[in-house]
Design a protein that fits this description.
Blueprint: E1 7-13, E2 18-25, H1 27-33, H2 40-60, E3 64-71, E4 76-84, E5 88-95, H3 103-107, E6 111-118, E7 125-129, H4 136-147, E8 152-158, E9 163-170, H5 178-191, H6 196-201, H7 204-212, E10 217-219, E11 223-224, E12 226-227, H8 233-243, H9 245-255, E13 258-261, E14 268-271, H10 273-279, H11 283-290
Parallel strand pairs: 5-12
Antiparallel strand pairs: 1-2, 1-10, 1-11, 2-9, 3-4, 3-6, 4-5, 6-7, 8-9, 13-14
């Protein structure tokens, strides 16, 4: 058996208040890597953060998108992954010089920002996460335990071919008893025996059997994951409108052409003076021009 390509599967322990998810990325991960050549240590961190973003977006059941962002003062300046509730993702990173050392060495005096951006126009939520831990999994575990007040464990791994992860979460119970505590301890200890190679390559059903063959686990249907950038010419035009007509005119006087490169997918957008004039036309005038034949 082979792993399900670009997939997320949920699972549930029938006789214990524990749920889980397993994500496996290959084509979607390749799409992230094709847009820039990342150093190996950064590529590994990106893969782990991308797998984590999918797991958390699925756990939170978003009608919108989740953005995980590491902002650094060290060699790594920025690492950002966006994943929607529909499991469409994109990712990018910025860095300077040679990359050596641990996560804390590379990020320096940085911060971890988590943004929940709903589609419906509701106000976005943004949280600043302390960089407590020597791995992305440890940092996010601390965040989930504190913010959601649910015990959460993450296992993340990636290489140049794929990225994978598993999440376990203890469900809230009205009256927790000793059996619940024992079950959580037993299940997490079993999962600690998981090897990176197994997490990267074993199909989810085989992986769960390997770990929990004495538990009653229900595995749900596969959910597909795709790489998709949300950039568009309209979105870039809206960003330029926010700068204002005077600022845009000043840039065009110097450069004659505004070029905007999407850092997620390398799509290039160009705007000249005619484009700028159309951007700042009153809405009624634009509509009239668009309906003219």
């Amino acid at each position: 058996m082979k792993t399900e390509p670009d997939s997320l599967q949920r699972f549930l322990f029938e006789h214990a208040p524990i749920r889980g998810e397993r994500v496996h990325l290959d084509a979607a991960w390749h799409s992230v890597l094709t847009h820039q050549e990342y150093p190996p240590v950064l590529r590994q961190m990106m893969g782990e953060l991308t797998a984590a973003a999918v797991l958390l977006a699925a756990t939170l059941k978003l009608d919108g998108s989740l953005v995980l962002q590491i902002q650094g003062t060290g060699a790594i300046k920025l690492l950002v992954v966006e994943c929607g509730g529909d499991l469409k993702l994109r990712a990018t990173a910025k860095w300077e010089g040679e990359l050596h050392g641990s996560l804390s060495d590379l990020v320096g005096n940085g911060r971890f920002v988590i943004t929940l951006a709903p589609k419906s126009g509701k106000q976005a939520y943004q949280g600043i996460v302390a960089l407590e831990g020597e791995s992305i999994a440890e940092i996010l575990q601390n965040y989930m335990t504190r913010s959601e007040q649910l015990d959460t464990r993450l296992w993340l791994v990636s290489d140049e071919h794929s990225a994978s992860g598993m999440l376990l979460q203890k469900l809230p119970e009205q009256a927790e008893d000793d059996s619940d505590v024992d079950a959580w301890s037993r299940v997490t200890q079993l999962t600690e025996t998981l090897h990176n190679d197994e997490l990267l390559h074993l199909p989810t059903q085989e992986l769960l059997h390997r770990l929990f063959n004495e538990e009653d686990v229900r595995l749900f249907e596969v959910q597909p994951i795709v790489f998709q950038c949300s950039c568009s010419r309209d979105n870039v035009a809206q960003m330029l409108r926010m700068l204002g007509a005077e600022e845009v005119d000043s840039i065009l006087t110097e450069r004659q052409l505004i070029e905007v490169l999407c850092e997620f997918c390398n799509q290039r957008y160009e705007f000249d003076k005619i484009d700028a004039a159309q951007m700042f036309l009153p809405a009624a005038t634009v509509e009239a021009n668009e309906t003219r034949h």
